[in-house]
């Protein structure tokens, strides 16, 4: 892995932020863009890519580097978020009360105590039909919905429709899955030095558990109508949530005690499920696909996301904690064998040119070993980057990928 140079936030304060912004406004259009165009004329990351697509991916990486040097935009407050979601985007809003503390148990409770994490009141946004109608409470009985977690390495992004990480994924879901609603959870974002340490593991996991508890117990949505879903780090949270429910036996409880039945299925888009970087080798997608993906500067070279997620936990947790890295190659075979045997059906959408391709394939293989090939749908889209649902110039790929998701949805 190359030296750790990105996501240092060295220009987060003024006047350095202004100077760095001016530097980028000059160098990107007048120096870097011409270089990207010239390079793409002769050498493109994928032979099937157009010149425009190759240049677009190069420019997108520059945006990620800029964020990593100047600072991460904060999530909107619930008041501002609710108002703008309704007025500007026609998107609904709901507060989510914290899951009862009795729902956080076992090794996750131990991690929560070490990192000072407790369940908190959060909120989420409703996308799809009927979300602004007076009295909207939940999707109609028998109509499947998506419970969605956005990506962003656990440290950035939002469920609010102003953020493409949620909006641009929800649009094709709604288009290809007739009648489906999407409830996108605004979970807490982790942070680390140079910022104060906050919201480390299991803050995000706790929040998505609260959201699932809200859907099942507060709204009364039938778990068999819920498809738990997530992109990138949100996919990791989706897998971690279902793993947690199974490992703690919350789906088997009846009578007294908190219970959380399993959802009908999982849909995962480019799930980031190896934060110990065990797949980094000279011949892996993590190394070879740096130019054909957008998130190279975000995932490596940097340790910011890992430090933020771990908090006070030892570094080894990034390699061997199944809630954080269930596809890690550092997990012993006896630890992963049978890990997913009680999982519901799973569909995996990911790009054939993304740096996490090999990571997702490892997850696919482990799921298939436990569940059988007929219950794991592998939707690798050739020559596509990470979470391509949020990208421009990928419309044909989106239609292909989400058309397959729509058919899977109808057949559930």
TrEMBL record:
Lineage: superkingdom: Eukaryota
Keywords: Hydrolase, Membrane, Transmembrane, Transmembrane helix
UniProt domain Alpha/beta hydrolase fold-3: residue ranges: 147-388
InterPro entries: AB_hydrolase_3 (IPR013094), AB_hydrolase_fold (IPR029058), GDXG_lipolytic_enzyme (IPR050300)
Endpoints of the signal sequence: none
Coiled-coil residue windows: none
Single Gene Ontology MF annotation: hydrolase activity
Pfam family, one: Abhydrolase_3
Annotated TM spans: 20-42
Protein name: Alpha/beta hydrolase fold-3 domain-containing protein
UniProt source species: Tetrapyrgos nigripes
